[in-house]
Write a structure and sequence with these properties.
The protein has 99 residues and is of the alpha+beta class. The protein has 2 domains: 34 residues; 55 residues. It is built from 2 helices and 4 strands. β3 and β4 form a beta hairpin. It is elongated, with a radius of gyration of 23 Å.
């Protein structure tokens, strides 16, 4: 029984190393293929329309994009505050994935 417990520690350590290796491979695989979108304040962008269409009852033939909007602030980690072209601020922050 004591021998099995000693072997179990070694197996746990091997498993931890193997999991860390797999996580590192997945991270590098993702980073090679990820498209990073960064915008600067005063850039013009379009916003995905399905986000607001869900609240208003979407129709099949609605446009896919809304806008243009102006980036007013970058909030970090791909989050942006938008303004309409007339200067009115759009509520909430928007992720770069939806712009």
């Amino acid at each position: 029984m004591r021998l099995n417990l000693d072997l179990l520690k070694g197996e746990r350590e091997k498993t931890i190393i193997r999991v860390a290796s797999c996580q590192q491979q997945l991270k590098s695989y993702y980073e090679k293929r990820a498209k990073v979108r960064q915008f600067q304040p005063s850039d013009l962008v379009l916003r995905k329309a399905f986000i607001t269409a869900l609240r208003q009852g979407s129709k099949e033939m609605n446009p896919n994009w809304e806008g243009p909007y102006v980036i007013s602030q970058s909030r970090g980690r791909g989050s942006y505050t938008l303004d309409a072209t007339n200067g009115k601020e759009i509520p909430r922050q928007w992720n770069a994935h939806h712009l």
